[in-house]
Amino acid sequence: MSKSGLFGLFGSKEDLQVATFEHAVEHFTRDVWLPVARRRPGLPRLLALLDRWLAYHRRRALPGGCFVTTATIEFDARPGPLRDAVARARRRMHSLLENDIRTAVEAGDLPAHADAADLAFSLYAIASAASQAIQLEEPGASARATRCMRAVLGAT
Q1: Minimal CA–CA distance to 34: which of 52, 54, 59?
Q2: Which of 47, 73, 75, 83 has the least CB density, counted as fewest CB within 10 Å?
Q3: Which DSSP string do the residues of 72-95 spell out, in sequence order?
Q4: pTM of the predicted protein model
Q5: Do residues 110 and 101 make contact, with C-beta atoms less than 8 angstroms apart?
Q6: Mind listing the domains of the chain with CATH numbers?
């Protein structure tokens, strides 16, 4: 199929990019978030989620690493529909993390003073750094990310 024929199926190059990105987010959600969704809320579910997230990076589920991480880095400063899709996905992931963190606080698994937004930001940052380090084949990157995530949560 020609490039113009492919774009024709989606309307434009940007529409194709957004559709590809949204498909990658669905893939990530199926592999990482959904398998732990039925677990009892609290720290055990949150830790299982983080373990799946790092396993997703380790097994390089998509060629070139985590598509979401790569798209975020490439398009965060480029206005347009793809940047908007990246921002929506990031907000959604942060919201889900924050909800799980708040639930862990309510269950007494995390300190009452824990700031869910700060912890979610820290965990997301570590996951992004882990994605890059794993792609660059840095020795011990996954284990380091696991230790850092648990330290952020006080679950060492």
Answers
A1: 52
A2: 73
A3: HHHHTTS-SHHHHHHHHHHHHHHH
A4: 0.86
A5: yes
A6: 13-153 (1.10.357.10)
